[in-house]
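Worked example 3. Consider a protein that binds adenosine-5'-diphosphate.
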Amino acid sequence: MNYEFKAQSKRLMELMIHSIYTNKEIFLRELISNASDATDKMYYESLTNPDLTFSKEDYVIELIPNKEERTLTIQDHGIGMNKEDLMENLGTIAQSGSLEFKKKLQEDQEDSSELIGQFGVGFYSAFLVADKVDVYTRRFDENQGYHWQSQGVEGFSIEEKDKEESGTTICLHLKANEEDENYDQFLDQYKLKEMVERYSNYIRYPIQMEMTKSRLVEKENQDPDAAPEYENYQEVDTLNSMVPIWKKAKKDLSEEDYINFYHEEGFGFDEPLAHIHMNVEGVVNYRGILYIPSMEPFNWRSKDFKKGLKLYSNGVLIMDKCEQLLPDAFSFVTGVIDSEDLNLNISREILQEDRELRIISKNIEKKIKEKLLDLLKNKREDYITFYKAFGTTFKTAIYESFGGEKEKYGDLLVFVSSKEKEYVTLDEYLERMEEDQDRIYYATGDSLASIDQLPQKEGMDKKNLEVLYLLDPLDEFVLKVMQDYKGKAFSSINTEKKEDLEHTEEEKGLFKEMKEILDGEVVEVKTSEDLGDHPLCLLSRGEISIEMEKVLQLQGQDLEAEKVLEINKNHPIYQKLLSLKDDKENLKKYTKLLYNQGRLIEGLTVKNPTEYTKTLFDLLADKDNKTK
Ligand code: ADP
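Given these inputs, the predicted complex is written out as structure tokens:
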């Protein structure tokens, strides 16, 4: 039977076949890693099924290059696939995270080449080097085997085909050599050996290949002057080291080993920022390697993303993503944990309540936190790269716990400071506060420049008070639920200061009238002496700030900040307003103008632009008339 690939798979396949991928070698890593996963699954089956016996030695992964046929075969004795598995698994590209992938592919028609590198397409990478792929496979618990074949874009066929041993054999028919691309190299035993050592060294099953070697022919009564004679012989070699990397001593591992393992496991396509190699002996014994990535995984922001660590019990894979091992705030961490103390027979559901697992997860959390603090202290630039990608998870954890988690994650937050325009921590802020300062000041806005231009910012600068810039809309929500950090309250410079102002009866009358003119738009009009030479500012009172109002309105919630209009007592406009006490018509125009200017400064829109423009020009024209 012939089948077509789904539309987007086709497009992806085309991109692949036209070999935009620069590093073709990775196909072998992908196929070996699939073979290893399939063997892991078989191993797991054998532990829960008494009819199956599993002897690790039987579960080799074989590489068979054939120069005459120009084929390279990768063979495993893993779980195998039945017809449905074949349709499902080899009929669509990039199963995991495929939705996000397809979306990106559609958005980014122009430059898809980089995209593939980011996503990794597993099995389909075979088409980087092959123009025809045969898959022979039989599931361990079924009698019927199948032959899947594809020549790329057009589709694939599936036929019944008997297969004696269960497992999967993948035969790649290599592409013809091109001017700048030599596919024959993938038939060369030394090249293959090098590729396995480089990309698949820590696969826990032996990867074997029959190698042709040569040796000196030993003869009796050898003439010492005769040239030595060599002969070829065949020998099966295991190409990989097999010892899981996490069982090795740190001193025997290089930075490159850790990075290779990260890629081998498909944890990410970036260079991880840091790794944590753990070897814990205690109430629960376990080892593991954790990674802090430097780039968002492609599906990080999609529903498809699942946090979790790969969990082994004494070398047996229990699950690919064990969620319980990671708190939500550290969802970005990837890696493996292997513990001999986990009960293998516990089902995957019961794992949730497992005491050992809880102990491990607590310790992991501590270790990750330590590592992050270490990066924050000693590799600030790396930490900022990381924070830009993943900082939201800490903020979300604090926000969603209504501040309950602030002790845990508060010291991981960073904000740009008005002092050096660099990221600083809250602890750094506290350390250098002015002597009589009792608050942590922050300002919200779209950019550093827009905050710097705020009238109230000038007052802060004059008093030499450090201000944290909150550019992410989530920031203010987080600081609001935190309320304070180590006893120092957060205070927004966009919010009204509560001070008792002495207003004369005349002023009181004026402000009352202005408030009435603004008809519910502001809760108060008052004076300020903190605005330098700016005429006015618009502040908020109460729980909802003006920045929050913007976010909430975007989410379709009709909530507005309570606004306070402050007029600079030292600005000539103030005297002008006082003089308009009995000129109702003009007081109305000035008041509306001032209020709308306040809205513009705060990045809000003017509610009635036509009326606003008319008022503005009426006043300007009036002024002209008078000066004539
Ligand atoms: P991924 O491995 O990321 O899921 P792949 O495209 O590499 O994506 O493989 C798709 C699926 O095909 C695998 O998840 C697995 O179920 C199945 N598969 C691939 N290779 C094998 C194999 N050698 N044995 C059994 N199943 C396999």
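Take a moment to read the result before moving on. The first strand starts at residue 2 and ends at 3. The chain has four domains: 2-213+233-238, 245-378, 402-492, 505-625.
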